[in-house]
Design brief:
3 helices
Length: 144
């Protein structure tokens, strides 16, 4: 009887130790997910605020974004709750929108510059064509 009581106590102590270790591991994983998510949200928020980012800086930022994405898919997604996945996806979308906005702004800036150049050249051409037409009309109706 004494042996079975001692054996039961040892078994309980071992299982309690294993449970405590699993809980500690789960808590550490939860903390690392929170840190990862916090770093990613801070990364995206800083990009959204800064409007003077150069093209070279965007290339560096894109490398950091790709590293975050690799960590997310390779390690953290499995450990995240649905709410954390939703938060990550929200900030991922905000990052992509900021990059897209930058690319469109860059392209529209180039397009507007080209349009200004074309408009200026067309204006000069129309003035010359107008002068030719005016001279033609004067030639029709004047005799000097």
């Amino acid at each position: 009887m004494k042996k079975s009581m001692i054996l039961t106590m040892l078994l309980m102590l071992c299982s309690m130790g294993a449970f405590a270790q699993n809980k500690a591991t789960a808590d550490a994983a939860s903390d690392s997910v929170k840190i990862f998510l916090g770093n990613f949200t801070k990364f995206v928020s800083q990009i959204e605020v800064n409007d003077s980012t150069t093209e070279e800086e965007y290339e560096e930022l894109d490398l950091r974004y790709k590293n975050f994405n690799k960590l997310y898919t390779g390690k953290f997604k499995k450990q995240m709750t649905n709410e954390q996945i939703s938060t990550f996806t929200k900030y991922k979308t905000r990052y992509k929108m900021k990059v897209l906005d930058h690319k469109l702004e860059k392209k529209t800036g180039r397009l507007s510059q080209k349009a200004d150049t074309i408009g200026h050249k067309m204006g000069e051409g129309l003035k010359k064509a107008g002068s030719e037409i005016g001279g033609f009309v004067k030639g029709l109706f004047s005799k000097d």
